Amino acid sequence: MQVYERFEIDLFFSITEKMTVLEGEKIIVSLLDKTEVEVVIE
């Protein structure tokens, strides 16, 4: 596993299909391999 020391914008855009923001609730990041990552906003 590779650990990155800083945010790699080109890498982000090469693996991300879309981001969905549900106002005041959560952010869902959909990757090209169909993985979804949800972050709840508190």
Average predicted local confidence, pLDDT:
94
| Structure summary, number of beta strands | 3
Radius of gyration: 12 Å
Distance linking N and C termini = 30 Å
Instruction: Report low-confidence residues grouped into runs of 5 or more.
Output: none
Alpha-beta classification: alpha+beta
How large is the share of residues in beta strands?
A: 35-45%
Q: Give the SSE string.
A: HEEE
Major sheet size, sense and barrel closure: 3 strands, antiparallel
Number of helices: 1
Specify the overall morphology: globular
How many domains comprise the coordinates? Answer: 1
Measured as a percent range, the helix fraction is 10-25%
Side by side, the strands of the main sheet go 1-2-3
Overview of this protein structure:
- By secondary structure, the protein is of the alpha+beta class.
- The chain has one domain.
- 17% of the residues lie in helices and 43% in strands.
- The chain contains one helix and three strands.
- The chain has one helix spanning 9-15, and strands spanning 16-22, 26-31, 36-40.
- A three-stranded antiparallel β-sheet has the order 1-2-3.
- Strand 1 and strand 2 form a beta hairpin.
- The longest helix has 7 residues, at 9-15.
Summarize the structure.
This protein is α+β, with helices and mostly antiparallel strands.
